[in-house]
Amino acid sequence: MEYVRQNRNRIKAAACLLLLALFCTGCAGTELENKSFPLAVIIAQKDGQHEVCYLAQQLSEVANERADGGNMTAASASGSTYYETHQSFEKSNRCKLDMTHTKAVIFQKGFLESRAFTVFLDTVRSENTYARNTLVYLSDAKTEDLAELNNTLEVPLGSYLEQMTENEREVKEQAFVTLGTLLNEQANASRTLLIPVLEVEHGLPVIKSYEVMQGFETKGSVGVKEAQIYYLLAGQMQQMDLFLDKEEQARLVRLKCKRKFYMQDGKVTERLLLKADAERITGKAARGRMERVLAERIKDSCQEQLLQNDIDLTDSSRDLALYAPDIYRMYGKRVQKYRDNLVYDVQVQVRMMH
Fold this sequence. Notes:
The protein has 354 residues and is of the alpha/beta class. The chain contains eleven helices and 13 strands. It has helices spanning 2-25, 82-93, 115-127, 143-152, 157-166, 179-188, 224-233, 287-308, 320-323, 325-331, 335-340, and strands spanning 35-46, 49-57, 72-79, 96-97, 104-108, 135-139, 192-201, 204-214, 217-223, 239-243, 249-264, 267-282, 342-352. A hairpin with a 2-residue loop joins strand 1 and strand 2 (49-57). The radius of gyration is 25 Å and the shape is globular. The relative contact order is 0.09.
């Protein structure tokens, strides 16, 4: 017992010394007043130069990450690479950038197609400054318009975007593109990603379209309706509201999408079986009619979007190795060849709960 008591005393003494050392040296060797804490970062490239705007939070508000947007500062820097721009900002402002509080990175449109995008991800990977769950957006809005949102929103732009994802009820958390998602895709180049495009409308950030990235290449944009089908067939939808008319409205829950693959006439057929329970919101239509109409509406929407788009809205190539090893071996790394030979067979089953 005496030995245990002495050991506890040694642990307490060591802990006190550690706290004292942290108090004396500050956080990571840098005093808080010499740090800048961006909640959102806007990155663009113009005439071969990086232009980065850091929407940082004042020191007095760092502990309250959802403080009034008026406590924000917007500061810009430029350089030939993102790393150089980062270093230039710190030297010019005599501070250390702390990206651990950053909620969102916003790329200006066109940045993803440039070599600078790959270099940026390489820098993030090697420097390990950003959190992997940092949200990713695109925008063609002017940098100053995005920065101005910090003066009009109730919370800083980075926190506002984070709240948008937290309050999202339809899609699952895994559907949101983050820096970690992009780093994985850079290494594997196998998935279909939908990156939300921010617009400024009536003083608010809104999302009306998504940039499609497939095989780590941009493939153009899709609207909200196409994005909804993607989330649905990729198994990333939690619930879905359907308004059949002014009187009949329902909500689909417990959505599940199973898929099978087989070869037919030289084509890869992906058979999709979508199952869902439906909760009546309004209306009095018979249960059987509601089930039939809902199933037909979803099937028609899925087939319409799948036929109209050259991209694989089902994000199926990532499942080949597990569910269709023979087809996976046939196409190997030729993912685009696989997508060119892909056709769909969609089946939908809906069960009304009441």
